[in-house]
Amino acid sequence: MARRTIGDIEKIWANVEGVKKLSDRAVGFGPFGIGLDGLLTWVPVVGTVYSVGASAWLLTQAVRAKASPATIARMAGYLGLDSATTAVGEVIPFAPDVVDFFFPGHLMAAKALQKDIETTHWVEANEREARASGDHERHLAEMKRKPGLRRVIYLHD
Questions:
Q1: Of 30, 93, 99, 157, which sits with the fewest C-beta atoms within 10 Å of its C-beta?
Q2: For 139, what's the count of Cα atoms within 13 Å in the CB-facing half-sphere?
Q3: Angle, to 10 degrees, between the axis of helix 95-102 and the axis of helix 46-64?
Q4: What's the mean pLDDT when you consider all of the chain?
Q5: CA 156 to CA 129: how far, in whole Å?
Q6: Which residues contact 75 (CB under 8 A, 6 or more apart)?
């Protein structure tokens, strides 16, 4: 597997931003928005395929970005609820579609992943080598100096 770089993490963040807007904020009305997920929920099968596909893609990006297990669990909860309401709409028409139309599950999951990325100190190195050279302590100190950072992730592990 190719080594990840900080540029790869920035690209993941930007791609997640695009899915966030496309799924739940393509058209905004103040604090509310409508996107493909809400609109396609009214189209049988297509809405479910889109919702589940976008959910799987967001979770894949979380794994690629080495998101914390808590973030992945939170994302899975948001996306599971979003996909479940879409899927139930296939069996019981209308009622779940209304819930899915207004529930921004992809938006919430994307924001959780973006926050995880923003609160991580990324290092393009191997943790074992950083500990051996003493650089690990420097990275911990740098993380503590910057407000809002919660963890150090080595991209070459």
A1: 30
A2: 20
A3: 40
A4: 88
A5: 10
A6: 58, 59, 62, 67, 109, 112, 113
Q: What is the dihedral of CA 43, 34, 32, 22, to 10 degrees?
A: 130
Strand bridging mode 151-154 / 120-123: parallel
3-class DSSP state of 75: helix
Average confidence (pLDDT) over 65-91: 87
For 150, the 3-state DSSP assignment is coil
Q: Six-digit token pair at 1?
A: 């597997």
pTM, two decimal places: 0.88
Give the residues across from 122 on adjacent strands: 153
* Rounded Cα distance, 63 and 12, in Å: 11
